[in-house]
Amino acid sequence: MRSDGESDGQSALIQLRAYLGQQQLAADSRLPPERDLSRRLGVTRTALRKALATLEQEGQLWRHVGKGTFVGPRPIEDLTDIATITKRTNPAEVMQARLAIEPELARLAALNASPEDLEEMRLCLRKSRSAQSWRQYESWDNALHRAIAEATRNTALLSLFDVLNSVRRAVAWGRLRRNPDRPAPDHHSFTEHETLVAAIAERDLEGAAEAMRRHLETVARNLLSNGGRPPEPGGGH
């Protein structure tokens, strides 16, 4: 048996669907303010908000804080907003995206990296190994991955990397760490990063892509194995 709140929410959803069907609004048309719309539909604002949220999840509406509610799917350009992406994604999706993009970045880096690019990558390797804290390590880890993206000499791909990397750093991660202060000397990323940079330096396109893929698969297993525990301080991997 449904509660009164559930019944009101379902009624508001039916009324809202009927309103949208009758109005035949064009895509990106803005709906009336919630106060006016709830009055037109004869429902409470609480029930209306639930109905709006349902239709937003279905992709029939999208909302922009401070601007209002609009008809149709959220515009692509709005999805480039880091805060919006972060709210709509999760760590598993972020890792899937990294696995789709970063091996190809490594492949292009092997093709296009300059001596200066390779020196920057090697500096990141040295600094990450000597890091005295997780924060220091993650800073150099991030610098290495971005150096690889820069070495592609592809502005569009570098921009995509920067967006994905910003989302990665904003999403909450749970993880288990044997050493609470800094990476252990046998931390998996050290060897994996060195193998990756060596493949790029040797102009081994397939080897670089495969090394990045293996590295990210290890990262995914470690980061996603914590079963939803609260995230520890820091970020990255």
Number of strands: 2
What is the helix content? 55-70%
CATH names the topology of the largest domain as Four Helix Bundle (Hemerythrin (Met), subunit A)
Q: Indicate the mean pLDDT.
A: 85
Query: In what range is the share of β-strand residues?
Result: under 5%
Please describe what this structure looks like.
The chain has 237 residues and is mainly alpha-helical. The protein folds into 2 domains: 4-74, Arc Repressor Mutant, subunit A; 82-223, GntR ligand-binding domain-like (Four Helix Bundle (Hemerythrin (Met), subunit A), Up-down Bundle). 64% of the residues lie in helices and 3% in strands. It is built from 10 helices and 2 strands. The protein has helices spanning 4-23, 34-41, 45-57, 82-88, 91-112, 115-129, 134-150, 155-170, 188-201, 205-223; strands at 61-64, 68-71. Strand 1 (61-64) and strand 2 (68-71) form a beta hairpin. The longest helix is centred in the middle third of the chain and has 22 residues, at 91-112. Mean pLDDT is 85; it is low at 227-236.
SSE map:
Blueprint: H1 4-23, H2 34-41, H3 45-57, E1 61-64, E2 68-71, H4 82-88, H5 91-112, H6 115-129, H7 134-150, H8 155-170, H9 188-201, H10 205-223
Antiparallel strand pairs: 1-2
Helix pairs in contact: 1-3, 4-8, 5-8, 5-9, 5-10, 6-7, 6-9, 7-8, 9-10
Would you summarize the structure shown here?
With 237 residues, this protein is mostly helical.
Keywords:
about 240 residues; mainly alpha; Arc Repressor Mutant, subunit A; Four Helix Bundle (Hemerythrin (Met), subunit A); disordered C terminus
